[in-house]
Fold this protein.
Amino acid sequence: MNFARVIVDVASQNTDRPFDYKIPEKFQGVVQPGIRVIVPFGPRKIMGYVVGLTDESSFSKVKNISDCLDVTPALTEELLQLGKWLSHQTLSYYISCLQVMLPQIMKAKYRKEIWKMTDEPLDSELEQVFDGRAVMEYEEFEKSNVSIHQLRKHIQDGEVDVHYEVKSRETKKVTRVIEPGVDEFTLIETLEDLSKQAVKQRRIVEYFTEHKEPIPKKQLLETLSTTSASLKPLIDRGVLKEFQQEIFRDPYENHHFERTKPFALTEEQAAAIEPILNTIQKRSHDVFLLHGVTGSGKTEVYLQSIQQVLNEGKEAIMLVPEIALTPQMVERFKGRFGSKVAVLHSALSAGEKYDEWRKIQRKEVQVVVGARSAIFAPFTKLGLIIIDEEHETSYKQEDRTRYHARDVAIERAKNHQCPVVLGSATPALETYARAIKGNYQLLSLKKRMNNAKMPDVELVDMREELHSGNRSMFSLVLKEKLEDRLAKGEQAVLFLNRRGFSTFVMCRDCGHVMECPHCDIALTYHRRQERLKCHYCSYEEAVPQKCPECESETIRYFGTGTQKVEEVLEQLIPDARVLRMDVDTTRRKGAHERILNQFGNKQADILLGTQMIAKGLDFGNVTLVGVLAADSLLNLPDFRAAEKTFQLITQVSGRAGRHEKPGEVIVQTYTPEHYSIELASTYDFEAFFNEEMKLRKAFNYPPYYFLTLFTISHPNQLKVQEVTQKIVQFMKQNLSEQSYVLGPTPSALTRINNRYRYQCMVKYKKEPEQRKLVQRILHYYEEEMKQENGLQITVDFQPYQLM
Ligand SMILES: Nc1ncnc2c1ncn2[C@@H]1O[C@H](COP(=O)(O)OP(=O)(O)OP(=O)(O)O)[C@@H](O)[C@H]1O
Ligand SMILES: [Zn+2]
Ligand SMILES: [Zn+2]
């Protein structure tokens, strides 16, 4: 093959196709689909992905590939195909889809430099900037007063040139390793030949008569307390070999994982796992929904399914939501499968992530446990994909390539002819509807382990609490129960939902709320620094002493943060030992784990936290769960608000009474009559599903209709309105009668970072031509979207964030 087809690292409509490059002699055989190369492109050199090889090119002037960045393909043939599919699904550039599948660190880094091409001094200030050097960073020129016209003139005169350097960022950590270079007998012979004085050499050879495996040089020298000087003659004689070996940064290096054995499955578990195991053995594709109440032993079903896959010599991907990827969770998989497991999640450093990814690529592991992007693990013999807590919206990527891991999982499983298992106690409405229709196979676990009861849920009406004179954020019952557990030496979990909930500052006299001057949104009060911050742009200011509107001094903080709850709790129950777990207390590496360990070791009575504690926790001594403000999600402008509320209450309640001791849940709410709260308190998923489906049907929402959301933004409000209006009209004209095109509507977050935001929402059942229409729109506005701070149009074919 003489030519390679390359997707270049430039995300634009014009470059969204393969370019042909000639494969120079020296790279023949090395260049193959999936490897990363460096190619000339216009005046510069950039990175690209080889997606195919061909003997002939229809272009007359074809440039050479400059360099290869990989020896082993970074992307498998299947992933190259998947990238194509992804780019069609999400209407993103192929290059963006290829990059989303690889660790961040493998993206190229570009450096722009200016090279002086003459020995004569330049007749401008640029000469001073060069300061006697032949090469300088482009940035230095930008910082100087030399104009771009001046630079251009020098370039035209051939006196300077602008170079683009491509750097690959990944670094492999290597170490020098020693191993025997001869067989055991020769080693023994050598030992006999060595003079008695060569004590150190003798010791080394002796060591290797007993140890055949390679050992890091440093470790060898330390173990035998010797030096390189004694090693060298042995290496020179060929008795020992020294070489470089790649070592992996293992984030779990210092952990000891207790090996676990499979449990004997309960009757329910056995019935649920059987069809999964059958499908694995038959090597066919199917999608299962494992609907199991919290604590019903879903994880054990996953573990034993994976075991089956390994027995078949195949590989498995296990997806877990980022916040549930706790050390406890990792331990369950490492404990069962040991070093066969790689872990991919965002808390790892870029280097660690790359190393975990390399273990997969080098076939050193057969199981990957990870968050969303682990769905792209470069396995070639996939036998199973599991998505735990499948309803979690974090499986949807919210920028650039807006993919949903569930869709990608199903696509990959089709490619590999293997099953997908979606698991949840509260499946997404869309998923459950498909399972009922028979598109997915429904498997149920209705009972908790050991037939433990689901904890009783008591709803506390906070309005009544207020009427009876209790102004605290803790109801009397909750306070009493907390004290009761404390007395018994049992533990409690307190959950505060912070999504859509924040501490804002308001004037009690005139009602003025402190807002961000760039975004139409209230500023959040940060107590530690006594500052107000915007969570959408980086704006911040000091807390004012007086109201900027009416000069009153009665400025007050509203809303509830975990810090605030902690303080109140300290006054309410001074003896309680409280651990707080939220973004603030878990920022440091390992903090998450430390807090959970402390709680597990009973060094605290109460674990207070946000979303982070809603999932995956499995502590037997927890017998009480309190939900402080159950309705905070309900008021969001989102048609999934009720669904999210139901899911969250169910998940949190599931943390209590998981082992021998029975559990209890207190849910504080201002709207106990809301069906999502009422039905969550009786664990009635079916009833909730039916109720919610009625509403979705009435308002034409998923799963009855599909949605497409356009978000248009620009600094000028009139401009945004005008463009949105045009898009609405265009879609109305071209879509079928059965579809609804809504808009232009200001987004719930109408202004972010000084940009106005409007929406157009399309509700449809079947529009096979829709993507083409959207493409035409994007094409039409392409020029305007290229301008800095210009028009932005994002299109989401499966929107979860509607604000
Ligand atoms: N067959 C079994 N025999 C004995 N114990 C089991 C069995 N299966 C699971 N368990 C134990 O029961 C507890 C609950 O199981 P698990 O955590 O797997 O439930 P889950 O359905 O994944 O829960 P959640 O959705 O709430 O996270 C765990 O401590 C687990 O080790
Ligand atoms: Zn005021
Ligand atoms: Zn802002």
